[in-house]
Amino acid sequence: MQATDHKSLFRKLEKTLESIERSEELVPTLSGVLERLVQDFRDDLGLVGGRIYARRQSGYALEWEVPEGRAPRGFLIPVSYPPIRELLERGYVLHRVGDPGVDAGIEQALGVELFAAIGIGEDHILAFTLRPGSDAAEVQSLLVTMRHVLNLKLRKEWLEDRLEEARAIQLSLLPAAPPSFGDFDVWGATVPAEEVGGDLYDFIEVGPRDLGIAVADASGHGLPAALQARDVCIGLRMGVEEKLRITAALEKLNRVIHRSALSSRFVSLFYGELDRSGLFVYCNAGHTPPIVCQDGVFEELRRGGIVLGPNPDALYDRGYVRFRPGAVLLAYTDGITEADNDRGESFGADRLRELVGSRPWGSARELVEAVFAAVRSFSGRPAPADDQTVVAVLRKRGPEAA
Questions:
Q1: I need a labelling partner for 284 at 20 to 30 A (CA). Which of 73, 104, 193, 312 fits?
Q2: Measuring CA to CA, how many Å separate 162 from each of 159, 224, 303, 381?
Q3: Is 202 helix (H, G, I), strand (E, B) or coil?
Q4: What values do phi and psi take at 169, rounded to 5?
Q5: SS3 369
Q6: Where does 75-229 show beta strands of DSSP type E?
Q7: Which pairs count as long-range contacts for 150-158, CB under 8 Å and 24+ apart, including other chains?
Q8: Read out DSSP for 24-72?
Q9: Which contacts of 36-45 are long-range, i.e. CB under 8 A and separated by 24 or more positions?
Q10: Which pTM value belongs to this model?
Q11: Grouped pLDDT means (10 residues each) for the chain, 402 residues
C-alpha cells in the first residue's frame, strides 16, 4: 500500500470517528465505533467482525460483539493469556491460531482464526476478526494509527466533559440574580478567557441590613485557577456565616489557601460589606483597586494587604467609604484594564474612569455592559486574552430611591 493510500485511510478513519454519536458510558460509544470500523474498513483491512472487552478482576470480559458470534456475553479471557500480556505491553497485537502462545480453544470458542486487538484507555480492548489472507503488515500499521486516533478522541472528549463539569460548578457559584438591596442597584458579570476561568464575583446576604460584595482573581486561568477561585468563594462564605469581622475572615481564608494543594498560586480578593445607610467597610487583599465616583471625584479602594496565599501570617486592614446618593462603585479584575490592542496599548485605568464619569448611568447593568463593550471595541478581539469580571453598585438619587 502506498503512502498516499495510508493518508486516505487515515482521513477515512477520522471521518468515521467524527460520525460516532457519544454516550455517557464508554462501552456504548465503543460499540458504535466498532460497528462503523467493521462496516467502513471491511475491504481496506479485511475486518469481518469485532469485539469489545472490559477489564474485570481476573481478566477481560466480552461486552459487545458484531456480528453476534458463538461466545456468550461475559466470556472471560484471563490476564495471563499471552496475547493479552503482549497487548498490555505494546498497545496492540496481531496473531493467528497456531502462533506461539495462542490458545486454539479460546479462539475457536470465539470463531476466530486471524485476529488483531488494540488497547483503549486503561480498561478496554477492541478486538477484530480478520479475513484469512489479510495483509498483516498493512493491518498492523493501521492498528497503530487507529489506536492513537481513538485514544486521542476519547481523551479529548473526557477532558471536554470534565471542563464542562467544572464550568457548571463554577457557574453554580456565581449569583443567580443580583440582590435587591435598599436604594442600591447592583450588577455583576464575568467572561472567562477559556472554558472556565479564575475570576469570581459574589453577593452575600450578611444580614437584613448588610450586603457582602466580593471580586476575586486567581493567578492564571483555566481549570487550576477556576478550582482556586471556587475554594475562595466557599471559604469566604463560610467566614461570613461564622460572623467573623472582615479582616479576620480574610486572614483565616489566607491561611486556608496557603495550605491548599494549589498553594503555589495566589489569589487577589476585594471584599466589602455595604449597609443600607451607605456605609461600606472593605478589605483589599492585593486586588486591582475598585473605584468610587461621587460628584465627579474618584477614589480608589486600596486599604487591606497582600494577595492571599503566599504568606500565612499576613495581616489585613479595613477601609471605609460612605456612598452618597448618585455614588458609583466599580470593582473589576485586571483583565479589564490590561486588555491590549494590536498596537500593544492597554485599556488602562484612565479610560475606565473616563467611561464611568462620562454620564449618569441608569442602572448598574448598563454600566457593566458598557465596560465590556468598550474593552472589546478597544482590543478588537471577540474573546478576551485574560479572564474579565466587572461588578457595579449604584446608589439611586431622590425619586429613583423611592
A1: 193
A2: 5, 12, 38, 27
A3: strand
A4: -65, -45
A5: helix
A6: 76-78, 92-96, 114-120, 124-130, 184-191, 199-207, 210-218
A7: 150/17, 150/33, 150/118, 150/120, 150/126, 151/120, 151/121, 153/17, 154/26, 154/29, 154/120, 154/121, 157/22
A8: SSHHHHHHHHHHHHHHHSHHHH-EEEEEEEEE-SSEEEEEEEES--SSP
A9: 37/128, 37/146, 38/66, 38/128, 40/12, 40/16, 41/9, 41/12, 41/13, 41/142, 44/9, 44/12, 44/142, 45/128, 45/130, 45/134, 45/138, 45/139, 45/142
A10: 0.64
A11: 50 63 64 82 84 92 87 92 93 91 92 90 88 79 74 70 68 82 96 82 91 90 72 85 86 87 74 97 97 97 94 95 97 96 95 96 97 96 89 84 45
Which of these, 11, 385, 362, lies nearest to 194 by C-alpha position?
385
In angstroms, what CA-CA distances link 190 with 22, 98, 147, 197? 30, 64, 40, 9
Q: Which residue type is seen at 310?
A: P
Residue that is written with C-alpha cell 449569583 in the block: 175
**CB-based contact 305:270 (threshold 8 Å):** no
Calculate the alpha carbon distances from 334 to 290, 329, 392 in Å.
11, 16, 15
Grid cell 479471557 in the structure block, residue: 77
* Phi, psi angle pair for 308, to nearest 5°: -80, 140
In 3D space, the residue among 83, 80, 77 whose CA is nearest the CA of residue 100 turns out to be: 83
Q: Can you give the pLDDT at residue 251?
A: 94
What pLDDT, on a 0 to 100 scale, did the predictor assign at position 3? 39
Contact between 287 and 213 (Cβ < 8 Å): no
Grid coordinates belonging to 276: 443600607
